[in-house]
Amino acid sequence: MAKQPIEIFMPPNMLKAKLGGTVVGLDMAAVKRAEAAVESLKSEFGAWIGADVARLVECRDAFAKHGGSAAHRELFRASHDLKGQALTCDFPLVARIAASLCHLLEQTETAPLSLVDAHVDGARAILRDDIRDAANPTASALAKELEARVIETAGA
Amino acid sequence: MSNYRFDRLRVLVVDDNQHMRKLVATILHGFGTVHVYEAARAERAWDMLHDCNPDVILLDWIMEGMSGLELAQRIRTSPQSPNPLVSIIMLTGHTHIDRVRQARDVGINEFLAKPVSVKSLLTRLSAVIENPRPFVRTEEYFGPCRRRRNYAEYQGPERRTKLPLAAKLAEPDAA
Fold first, then answer.
1. How far is B113 from chain A (nearest CA, A)?
2. What is Dmax (Cα atoms) for chain B?
3. Is it true that the peptide bond before B115 is cis, omega within 30 degrees of 0?
4. Would the CB atoms of A26 and B126 count as touching at under 8 Å?
5. What is the pLDDT of residues A50-91, one digit of tens each?
6. pTM for this one?
């Protein structure tokens, strides 16, 4: 049977026709309005990150209790969400630890529970002590150590 | 200054994390977008497409049930899709090149790496408004041209004759 030919076409730019606008860099007025809107959300960020870390702990408990790929997948999703959210919520070291945990879980289905626990406990401790400074010596040393252990276990 | 009429824009935000949806919706409202629709699951988003008729879909990658990749592929290729040409921006914490390629291969227009910021979201929206790419239809792909720059002068490997998309998605590392 003959192969379908390659078809290339440029659809009409309906979005541009609808929204208009002239392009000379970003619309800084829109940026300022949106940044002000995000600023008004910041009072909720503590509760958001608290909920995300609590979910991570729940998923860790289920992973420890049941194991298996479903629990592994849920734990990965929880750590992945935390990685994406923690920086927004001004907890950069929680984001770094969550990224390290994601890497561990992505590389191996048989992640050692002790190493998973070290990440979860680290994230909880940073949140409990309200450490928002990425250069905090104790917390950054912890993050560095966890990253090194993950590389030893799962590779770079 | 771009001065887009964001009040005319219709956006569907698909993410199973309610905080991420709220953050993105807040930024969009800040731009002046009035019509922001939210779905916590890809299956729900698919059902909503006919009614909300979005101009842009902001789509998370990893979700319970149908993934963002699967939804994007369905939007591009299903005969039931109400708008296979809709702009899709993928929200993701994955920034590894292999992951970017996977998303590109199901027809994503743009990537937005988490954490989401006001400027990064506006930059991606501006990209889909100002720099739309031609669409390509082959046996195994339908979506924006993956040869983002100088596609007419492309001299890289010929991908348009390789494995069908369904086979690629079935590969073990495709999840």
1. 8
2. 46
3. yes
4. yes
5. 999 999 999 999 999 988 889 999 999 999 999 989 999 999
6. 0.85
